[in-house]
Amino acid sequence: MGLRKDFLWGGATAANQSEGGVLEGGRGLSTIDLLPIGPDRRKVAAGELEMLDWQEDYYYPAKEAIDMYHRYVEDIEMFAEMGFKVYRMSLSWSRIFPNGNDEKPNKEGLAFYEAIFQELKKHNIQPLVTIAHFDVPVHLIKEYGGWKNRRLVDFYVRYASTVLQEFKDYVTYWLTINEINVLLHQPFVGGGIVFQEGDNKEEIQYQAAHHQLVASALVTKVAHEINPENKIGCMLAGGSHYPYTCKPEDYQEAINRDREGYFFIDVQARGKYPNYALKKFQREGLTIQMEAEDEEILAASPVDFVTFSYYCSRTVSSRPEDYAQATGNLFPSIKNDYLPSTEWGWQIDPLGLRNSLNQLYDRYQKPLFIVENGLGAVDRPDENGYVEDDYRIDYLKQHIQAFKDAVEIDGVDLLGYTTWGCIDLVAASTGQMSKRYGFIYVDRDDEGKGTLNRTRKKSFHWYKKVIASNGETL
């Protein structure tokens, strides 16, 4: 028993990391447009440094990104040449509702995405659409404080209902909110939150989380009403936590850290708050405002399938200060001496992907979909722009084998696999172009210089064969 015959092979991008054209076609400013490259990027992302307008002396890579706004036809043709069955993409909220709360959508924004969907249809590629991928219109932050304000539920539902209705003839696979647990680690990126002095940060983050969970459930309901064929998924920044030692306290820390992310999916997939979260709020004195009908809203509309990103596993201890830390990842982790690391310090662990799939499937008993996985690396093209990226092929090969084992040996129900950054794009974590994930090389550097020309890497031809053989030829 191999992968399902209709297994969805493809690649993934996000509007804010690939489109560019940030003020074209009537689009408004969004969160990630305001993340500069350099040392202040993390502070802005964490909501610790307010930057709600572009400032001089900073370079903002999302402004132009890889200019997919003007080049999507060429890019989709290359995806089709690889044999993509599915393309995971996101819509820009502020391209469709420039302020986030406009009465009517921006027709130019809708027309742009319709043209993309028509192009995908022409090549028999199914879109898997993320409705909000690290994307909060800046007007909603200035006016309402981002997702900490209950008003955003209505604005998001209006936006989502509009695109669900508008694109119902093109899209049946939808994700409500990308890597929803990132809200706890980068609140500005995940929720448009900027902290003020004296704020109870954790309370604000969990209040924003509650609003997002209610909004996600409401949109799941709307999606099923608009088209009963619609499949709605949630999205977790995944990767299991290992205890650093056999000390029971370390094992307990691993459970606690896993739960930090599972909390969101527990609500989205099961339709109610888990007891451990309610106990946490009680124990830590966190007051989360909930409306009388919220419990019913969550219970009525659990998601149809569960998606997640997987790049690495993480290792934790009850005494992390005693050990060397792994670098580069958003989620703190101790360096695991059994695993190699990428150039950015992310630890490479294919078996961890199989373990994560089993944990998620055991927990939710819903179909799974790996919507991000890949190797961020420095690529050195030859004079023709060709990159011999055997290191990327090796990484992907091992991870594909791992998820095949999860399906064939363990019986996990897996719908598909989209590698992250199938074309080089701006890295969300660092803003760099030099941290490349793609099968397609884009001539662009960290300072925004380059022709933006696209060339096929060695991995492009390799992935084409993988897809053609439904994963039999690695």
UniProtKB/TrEMBL annotation:
Catalytic residue list: E372
Gene Ontology molecular function: any one: beta-glucosidase activity
InterPro entries, sorted: GH (IPR017853), GH_1_N_CS (IPR033132), Glyco_hydro_1 (IPR001360), Glyco_hydro_1_AS (IPR018120)
GO cellular component: a single term: cytosol
GO process annotations (BP): carbohydrate catabolic process
Keywords from the UniProt entry: Glycosidase, Hydrolase
One Pfam family recorded for the sequence: Glyco_hydro_1
Family (UniProt): Belongs to the glycosyl hydrolase 1 family.
Descriptive protein name: 6-phospho-beta-glucosidase
